[in-house]
Design a protein that fits this description.
Fumarase C, Chain B, domain 1; elongated; Ribonucleotide Reductase Protein R1, domain 1; two-stranded antiparallel sheet; mainly alpha; Fumarase C, Chain A, domain 2; 430 residues; 20 helices; two-stranded parallel sheet; 6 strands
Length: 430
């Protein structure tokens, strides 16, 4: 991922230095286990730990000759640690190191993403409670439907990100496995106790059965969850973008003092951050398909997944981290216009109360279909005549004979639409 959309904490996880350090941690843990079970001489792990440093350039130089990254790494370590380092990697295969490391990097990334989500949840909770009873129009198909509150809209986002947090926790738990089982995963040349020791040391679980690689359905699950979270980010971003349109203008992204909008039109304040998040969300979701396709590999392994993961591993996690942090900033600083929300609620001159009028007519004994047609005819007239629906209804004796004018006045208020807001909030913010 390019630096423009990257934060240091995530970048460091996917750095060459961190990757090779985890490789070294895996090898040292395996060496400690082999010493414990008298498979290799004492002192190998301590010497390697004491004398070895990660030298990225040297590893790359060796790899350029041997064309194998793990061999290059082991050669670099042996150069530093001396002859005892020859006992490293006994009975292991490259995938033992690579897959265990990848899972650790995903765990490290996932834990930061969980913190990012916690921040979003905190902001959404605060803003939802602030605007709990702020009326605004609910829209279906982009058309005015019935009144809701802006707080309910935010509470819906909050509940979705609660689910995202749960999904991500499950994905992290699912990916927290370790494989130190050797070629084709049979433990033919390595004691299974080594894997158990390494897993415990690195706070992982032994992979119940590996085929030389850790099965990629685990990784597909993780990246699929990232894709779902990205979808949630886009949902919120799209809503902000729509609500900032000039015709709507119920809220606005924070616009700093010296910020510029359009290079040509000085009046413009564009929702550029939300638009940016929409694009980043598309990128993150695009990584899900390759992760799913990585599930099916040849026999016990091939490396067709390797080039994919070298790209989607850092990019998906870094991009999502950046997007989550940006979204929490947008939500925290957004400018809300309650007066405009009221103005827009009244834009259709009372049409948003049509359902309650229809239902009231059915209670008076009129068949639902007839009641629907009756209210619809006045709704159409309201559009054509640019007249308030309530005025038209009061002028129709077939309606006022069934519903009193006092009752009609009561219908054309927000009371009924707000009466269960507290109930919904109690369900969401338990």
């Amino acid at each position: 991922m390019i630096s423009r959309y990257s934060r240091k904490e995530l970048v460091s996880i996917w750095s060459e230095e961190n990757k090779y350090q985890i490789w070294l941690d895996v090898e040292i843990a395996a060496a400690e286990a082999m010493e414990k079970y008298k498979i290799i001489p004492k002192g190998v792990a301590s010497i390697v730990k004491r004398k070895s440093k990660i030298k990225v350039k040297r590893i790359h130089d060796i790899e350029a000759k041997v064309k194998h990254d793990v061999i290059a790494f082991l050669t670099s370590i042996t150069e530093q640690a001396g002859i005892k380092a020859r006992y490293l990697h006994q009975g292991m295969t490259s995938s033992d190191v690579l897959d265990t490391t990848l899972n650790i990097q995903l765990i490290q990334s996932g834990n930061i993403l969980l913190k990012d989500i916690d921040k979003i949840l905190s902001v959404l909770k605060k803003q939802a409670k602030k605007y709990k009873m702020t009326p605004c129009i609910g829209r279906s198909h982009g058309i005015h439907a019935e009144p809701i509150t802006f707080g309910l809209k935010l509470a819906s986002f909050y509940e979705e990100f609660k689910r995202n947090k749960s999904r991500l926790r499950d994905a992290i738990e699912n990916i927290s496995t370790c494989a130190i089982s050797g070629a084709v995963g049979t433990f033919a040349n390595i004691d299974p106790r080594i894997e158990t020791y390494v897993a415990k040391k690195l706070k992982l679980k032994p992979e119940p059965i590996s085929t030389q690689i850790i099965p990629r359905d685990r990784h597909a699950h993780y990246f699929s969850v990232l894709g779902i979270i990205a979808g949630s980010i886009e949902r919120v971003s799209t809503e902000i973008r729509h609500l900032q349109r000039s015709e709507v203008y119920e809220l606005q992204e924070f616009f700093s003092k010296d910020q510029k909008g359009s290079s040509a039109m000085p009046h413009k304040k564009n929702p550029i951050l939300s638009e940016n998040l929409t694009g980043l969300a598309r990128m993150v979701r695009s990584y899900v398909i390759p992760a799913l396709e990585n599930i099916s590999l040849w026999h016990e392994r091939d490396i067709s997944h390797s080039s994919v993961e070298r790209n989607i591993g850092p990019d998906a996690n870094i991009a999502l981290d950046f997007a989550l942090v940006r979204l929490s900033g947008i939500l925290e600083k957004m400018i809300v216009y309650p007066k405009t929300m009221i103005k827009n609620l009244n834009l259709t001159r009372g049409l948003v109360f049509s359902q309650e009028v229809m239902l009231e007519l059915t209670k008076s004994g009129i068949a639902r279909e007839k009641a629907y047609r009756l209210v619809q005819s006045h709704a159409k007239a309201s559009f054509v005549k640019n007249t308030n629906l309530l005025t038209l209804l009061k002028s129709d004796k077939s309606i006022t004979s069934k519903i009193s004018e006092k009752r009609l006045d009561k219908i054309f208020t927000y009371d009924k639409h707000l009466k269960n807001v507290n109930y919904i909030f109690k369900r969401v913010f338990k």
